[in-house]
Amino acid sequence: MAVEELFRHIESKRERYLGFLKRLVEQPSVSATGEGIEECASQVAELLEEVGIRADIYRDHGGNPVVFGEIQAEAHATLMFYNHYDVQPPEPLDKWLSPPFTLAARNGKLYGRGAADNKGNIAARIAAVDSLLDTLGETPVNVKFLIEGEEEIGSPTLEKFCELHSDLLFADGCVWEYGYRNRAERPVIYLGVKGILYVELEAHGAATDLHSSWGCVVENPAWRLVKLLNTIRGDDGTILIDGFYDDVEKPGEELLSLLDDIDPAEVDVKELFGAEITVGGKRGKDALRALLLEPAVNICGIIAGYTGAGSKTVLPSRASTKLDFRLVPRQEPLDIFRKLENHIKKHGFTDISLNMVQGYPAARTAPDSPFVAAVAETARVAYGVEPVLYPSGAGSGPMYVITERLGIPCVSTGVGYPGSLAHAPNENIREQDFIAGIKHMALLMIRLHQYLH
Ligand SMILES: [Zn+2]
Fold first, then answer.
1. In this structure, is residue 374 part of a structural domain?
2. How far is the CA of 399 from the centre of ligand 1 (A)?
């Protein structure tokens, strides 16, 4: 079938495919509270079945239901999609211009919680399969949908699901959940994501809060915590924990050259966020390199003592903080945790306790993987512009389950744009990107086998 014919068919089904999105967005599914999770899993499975994709709901991994959809087309190649049907809480509600769980169309944009993250991508991918079943009567590849319901709370049971059901999960390539068109309208394709280690630290002082006059004698846990934090990161962002960089591989030429194709204006934090001070004065290419290829540590919050109105002279009995480390390929969260533990001991901060909250490693697919070429070249046709390859996203996600545990190449691309406001009020996608995303995934299914043989 000619590409133009397929694309025209997709455009003619616009209303049907927007209907898929509407159904998903209008079913709340907030994993943070559990609201609507069961109903949404059923809704996703129903939609898959309606289109002609056999679907099962799994619960044996012990977390929110995983919806697994499959078309066994007896084809040589198998494509998997990873998505999540859960969304972030919609609050603050008064900042929404239309109700969060209603799909509202305004000026070519589609508003609603989950429109971008991640229901727009689920709907677009199901629509892509639908368009092929409609026009060809079959999909040219075997198709698998792995759609979980805990991504927004850190995917705590995804690895367990994949261990229990590794027999279901064979594929030649996987398209990860999200992506967007950059400011130059080029679709971004991520070749990986960073890993994460999330920890909490608590400094303990006297048994109770004290009159601050005791500050001449009694050590203040807030000072202790601040001192420890100062030993963890240098001013230029370098992490000062012994052995932290031991497993970090120097990025090769192939990865570094990808940075040359990315406009540094995409990370102009002064323009984007009004941020005047950058870590170590990094700007332009240096900022890009740090964001996409280097590990980092961040203080998510610090709490101690009194910070209310007026004054209260107090010496707090405890101080605590939460840190996240963004990890790059080969760094193992548990290993970094041990190194942090040693660091705390070595510097004599035995009054500070350390606890690991969450951790998983980074993921990356090689730029010269045939699967990357398949996704990039079909993007060029579907979007009519050159895609841009990012060696990694700056954020984290459990992609390691696919790339490291299952050994499947995986890249991320999707229907967002820089104004999508994922996680925020008025989350939205542009209708044109939704349609382009359907075309891209449909074309990928048609052409994938050409790249694998
Ligand atoms: Zn999200």
1. yes
2. 14
> Residue-wise over 11-50: b if at least 16 C-beta within 10 A, else e?
eebeeebbebbbbbbbbbbbbeeebbbeebbebbbebbee
Tell me the CATH number at 107.
3.40.630.10
Distances 251 to 154, 238, 330, 365 between C-alpha atoms, Å: 27, 17, 12, 13
The C-alpha atoms of residue 175 and residue 189 are separated, in whole angstroms, by: 10
Q: What is the CA radius of gyration of the chain?
A: 24
CA of 336 to the centre of ligand 1 (A): 25
**How far does the centroid of ligand 1 lie from the alpha carbon of residue 383, in Å?**
24
Ligand 1: distance of its center to the CA of 91 in Å?
14
Report how far ligand 1's centroid is from the alpha carbon of 156 (Å). 14
Strand partners, 194: 396
Distance from residue 71's CA to the centre of ligand 1 (Å): 27
- Answer yes or no: is 272 within a domain: no
- The parent domain of residue 436 ranges over 3-193+363-452
pTM: 0.93
pLDDT tens string, the chain, 453 residues long: the values are 789 999 999 999 999 999 999 999 999 999 999 999 999 999 999 999 999 999 999 999 999 999 999 999 999 999 999 999 999 999 999 999 999 999 999 999 999 999 999 999 999 999 999 999 999 999 999 999 999 999 999 899 999 999 999 999 999 999 999 999 999 999 999 999 999 999 999 999 999 999 999 999 999 999 999 999 999 999 999 999 999 999 999 999 999 999 999 999 888 889 888 999 999 999 999 999 999 999 999 999 999 999 999 999 999 999 999 999 999 999 999 999 999 999 999 999 999 999 999 999 999 999 999 999 999 999 999 999 999 999 999 999 999 999 999 999 999 999 999 999 999 999 999 999 999 999 999 999 999 999 987
All residues with CB under 5 Å from ion ligand 1 = 117
Counted domains in the chain? 2
Calculate how far, in angstroms, residue 137's C-alpha sits from the geometric centre of ligand 1.
Answer: 34
Same domain, 141 and 32: yes
Q: Is residue 264 part of a domain?
A: no
- Residues pairing with 304 in the sheet: 319
Domain end marker among 360, 387, 417: 360
